[in-house]
TrEMBL record:
It is an enzyme of class 1 (oxidoreductase). Its cofactor is FAD. Its EC number is 1.1.5.3. GO terms for biological process: glycerol-3-phosphate catabolic process. This is Glycerol-3-phosphate dehydrogenase.
Length: 533
């Protein structure tokens, strides 16, 4: 039976403030459990802010016969879209077809075709792509999103930025999501339901003492140490999940993690329409080119093995060149490194299934419970941002074995803060916000709705001019919004704000970001703005 937290004693202690940790914290708190979560850096500071920003089923996973994963992800697309229409929205994906499309390496599908259709010589035929898209349209019970169509690239805007050799494309549906804001809103929801969310707090040790865990933490800013007790421990450490098993928990569990680095580049906007491109290369890999933050284009991702989570992932020059060359196979106007305004890279902590390549490694999640004769430990491996809510439900199924009176599932259809409107109403909200706050230009109003939804009114309150919002930090970031982020969304430093809670770092100067960091440090020191303890 879950119990209320007493001092520093909890039902559940979660290590890791990425999407899996925060998703589990939200679900568990909503079922009445007392929950604490410790994140050694910022929320979504690693993998969960470095994705390709998509709620998608994973079209290419069909070639690996991962039908359960794809079906679950496709079903979740629309569930999540309705729960968070401010930070996610539908997007159409254009897949140009050409006869040189090939498989990457030895996928299960390519092996079958090699046996039964050897004359294809590793190529992806058009009928196979159309079959995959048909399955993609129907596996997940699609209701909100339109299905696949065929596009004449010589006649529409979709073909304008592409090389003239591309005359035909398939267009299908998936969804965009602001990954880091998704994490912050899950953490906020968990906190509002009673969870204790601690950022900048590293778990230095965790050991079993009979039927509970003894957990020691260190505040990485002050050096202060704290002691916690919990009936169950959840290791959602992302890239550090293996390190936590071996060093913090000192478990004998033999499950391995495979770290795969995915890198992205961001350029100035390369085309005028709002659709995404799905490009397939002659090496069999795929990349996306996606409209990003209104004035930019996001291109990615790579798949490279990454040996050590302590080594910060960066988009190497070789990866930049690879993505540029890949995109240049499709776009009329070649891009170069001079067009890149930002790069980022993240490490996916995949379950080590022995796959021959980083690309072939499963993206499905794996949950392992370890008791070793004492208090239970749940280790979380892998997962996609699209299936985070289902992962949390699966985690709660395993947690429920040790808390038999827990209530059942509840998160499906429950909106995150600011998301209490329909997907189709977003343009009307933008227009209404701009109408009621006449000092907002279109970019600013749209950014506020896309970030905060109906909470935008709570941030702007009774302001009648920009000056009413306090200090102006540049790029439409004001003191009113910043205080909201510090008191409601656990932001502590400038990087938390301009690269995770927003992407305003793309529009701010280095000097503006330094001034923001200085302001936040002083505000925090004065006790004026602190989201967590």
């Amino acid at each position: 039976m879950p119990a209320a937290a007493t001092d520093n004693a909890f039902d559940l202690f979660i290590i890791g403030g990425g999407i899996n940790g925060c998703g589990i914290a939200r679900d568990a708190s909503g079922r009445g459990m007392s929950v604490a979560l410790a994140e050694m850096e910022d929320l979504a500071s690693a993998t969960s802010s470095a994705s390709t920003k998509l709620f998608h089923g994973g079209l290419r996973y069909l070639e690996y016969f991962e039908f359960r994963l794809v079906r679950e992800a496709l079903m979740e697309r629309e569930t999540l879209l309705q729960a968070m229409p401010h930070i996610s929205w539908p997007m159409r994906f254009v897949l140009p077809y050409h006869k040189d499309m090939r498989f990457e390496g030895e996928t299960p599908t390519s092996k079958l075709l090699k046996i039964f259709m050897p004359w294809l010589r590793g190529r992806r035929p058009a009928w196979l792509i159309r079959l995959g898209l048909f399955m993609y349209d129907h596996l997940g019970g699609r209701k909100l999103l339109p299905g696949t169509t065929t596009v004449d690239l010589s006649a529409g805007p979709e073909g304008a930025p592409l090389d003239d050799r591309f005359v035909k494309a398939y267009e299908y549906s998936d969804c965009w999501v602001d990954d880091a804001r998704l994490v912050a809103l899950n953490a906020r929801d968990a906190a509002e339901r009673g969870a204790r969310i601690m950022v900048g707090t590293k778990v230095t040790s965790a050991r079993r003492e009979g039927d509970h865990w003894r957990i020691e933490t260190e505040n990485r800013t002050t050096g202060e140490t704290s002691l916690f007790h919990a009936r169950m421990l959840v290791n959602a450490g992302g890239p550090w999940v293996g390190d936590i098993i071996k060093n913090a928990v000192r478990s004998k569990a033999q499950d391995g993690v495979r770290l795969v680095r995915g890198s992205h580049i961001v350029t100035r906007r390369l085309y005028d329409h709002d659709k995404c491109y799905f490009f397939q290369g002659t090496d069999g890999r795929i990349i996306f080119a996606i409209p990003y933050e209104q004035d930019f284009t996001l291109i990615g991702t790579t798949d490279q093995d990454h040996e050590d989570p302590s080594i910060e992932p960066v988009c190497t020059e070789a990866e930049q060149d690879y993505l540029i060359a890949f995109a240049n196979q499709y776009f009329k106007r070649d891009i170069s490194r001079d067009d890149i305004v930002w790069t980022y890279s993240g490490v996916r902590p995949l379950y080590d299934d022995g796959a021959s390549s980083a690309t072939a490694a499963t993206r499905d999640y794996t949950l392992k419970v370890d008791t070793e004769g004492g208090a239970p430990l749940l280790n979380v491996f892998g997962g996609k941002i699209t299936t985070y809510r289902r992962l949390a439900e699966s985690a709660m199924d395993r947690i429920g074995r040790f808390f038999p009176e827990l209530p059942g599932q509840w998160t499906a259809g429950v909106t995150l803060a600011g998301g209490d409107f329909k997907v189709s109403e977003k343009p009307d909200l933008v227009a209404r916000l701009q109408r009621e706050y006449g000092f907002l230009d279109t970019f600013w109003a749209e950014r506020m709705i896309r970030a905060y939804g109906t909470d935008a009114w709570k941030i702007l309150k009774t302001a009648r001019s920009v000056s009413d919002l306090g200090h102006d930090f540049g790029a439409t970031l004001t003191e009113a919004e910043l205080r909201w982020l510090m008191t409601r969304e656990f932001a502590r430093q400038a990087g938390d704000v301009v690269w995770r809670r927003s992407k305003l770092g793309l529009r701010m100067t280095a000097e503006q970001i330094l001034a923001l960091d200085d302001w936040m440090a002083k505000a925090d020191t004065n006790g004026e703005a602190r989201a967590t303890g």
